């Protein structure tokens, strides 16, 4: 996705070598620290030897690159998805306050864990700004529940199985569609998109940019 400063949209362009992550994190001692796994060190691509293909195949996200796209100044499409407790949650319930909606590739991958914990560590700052935080990926509710419990995430995670909402919002993929995009939206109290930030390989920048925008708004 091309960068567009007028839409506050950013995308990372980097070489394959820089996609690798050293898997070291700085977190407060009272929280679990993400540990090295046998999974891929790519930020959002999870590979398992027990599967014949990656669950995040290029075909799964090809359409998202060409789908209709939500832009700055537009009302965000409503949706209803199940949260980590299996309860349906609609976007419209948050009308009246700013909402940070961040799409991420998958639970328990290094980059996504780092991003989730960064949102956790700054959650009080988001609350002080009057904003809610919602994370969305294609994982099911059980996966979200385990992920939120393990890392003590205080905000809502929604299950977009089949990636319907991701496609409806036009979240672009990375690595030619093989990797689900990492994109964050800030909605105002009327549900209108005011900021779009895309950065696959610097997950913590999403927190910095959204907080900067909310404080200036």
Automatic annotation (TrEMBL):
Record has Transit peptide as a keyword: yes
Compartment(s) where it occurs, according to its Swiss-Prot or TrEMBL record: Plastid, Chloroplast thylakoid lumen
Reactions the enzyme catalyzes: a hydroperoxide + [thioredoxin]-dithiol = an alcohol + [thioredoxin]-disulfide + H2O
GO MF entry, a single one: thioredoxin-dependent peroxiredoxin activity
Principal location: plastid
Gene3D superfamilies referenced in this protein's UniProt entry, alphabetically: Glutaredoxin (3.40.30.10)
Keywords tagged on the record: Antioxidant, Chloroplast, Disulfide bond, Oxidoreductase, Peroxidase, Plastid, Redox-active center, Thylakoid, Transit peptide
The keyword Transit peptide is assigned to this record: yes
Pfam families: AhpC-TSA (PF00578)
Stretches assigned to the Thioredoxin domain: 70-217
Known EC number: 1.11.1.24
Enzyme type, top EC level: oxidoreductase
GO cellular component: chloroplast thylakoid lumen
Family indicated by similarity: Belongs to the peroxiredoxin family. BCP/PrxQ subfamily.
The name this protein goes by in its record: Peroxiredoxin Q, chloroplastic
Protein source organism: Brassica campestris
């Amino acid at each position: 996705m091309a960068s567009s400063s007028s839409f506050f949209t950013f995308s990372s362009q980097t070489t394959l070598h820089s996609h690798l992550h050293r898997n070291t994190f700085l977190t407060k001692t009272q929280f679990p620290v993400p540990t090295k796994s046998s999974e891929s060190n790519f930020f959002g691509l999870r590979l398992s030897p027990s599967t014949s293909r990656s669950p995040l195949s290029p075909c799964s996200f090809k359409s998202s690159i060409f789908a209709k796209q939500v832009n700055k100044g537009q009302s965000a499409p409503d949706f209803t998805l199940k949260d980590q407790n299996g309860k349906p949650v609609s976007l419209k319930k948050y009308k009246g306050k700013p909402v940070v909606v961040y799409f991420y590739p998958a639970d328990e991958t290094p980059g996504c864990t780092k991003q989730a914990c960064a949102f956790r560590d700054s959650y009080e700052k988001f609350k002080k700004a009057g904003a809610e935080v919602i994370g969305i990926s294609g994982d099911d509710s059980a996966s979200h529940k385990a992920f939120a419990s393990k890392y003590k995430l205080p905000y809502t995670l929604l299950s977009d199985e089949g990636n319907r909402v991701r496609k409806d919002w036009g979240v672009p993929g990375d690595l030619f569609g093989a990797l689900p995009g990492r994109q964050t939206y800030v909605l105002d109290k009327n549900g209108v998109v005011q900021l779009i930030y895309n950065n696959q390989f610097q997950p913590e920048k999403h927190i910095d940019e959204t907080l900067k925008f909310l404080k200036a708004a």
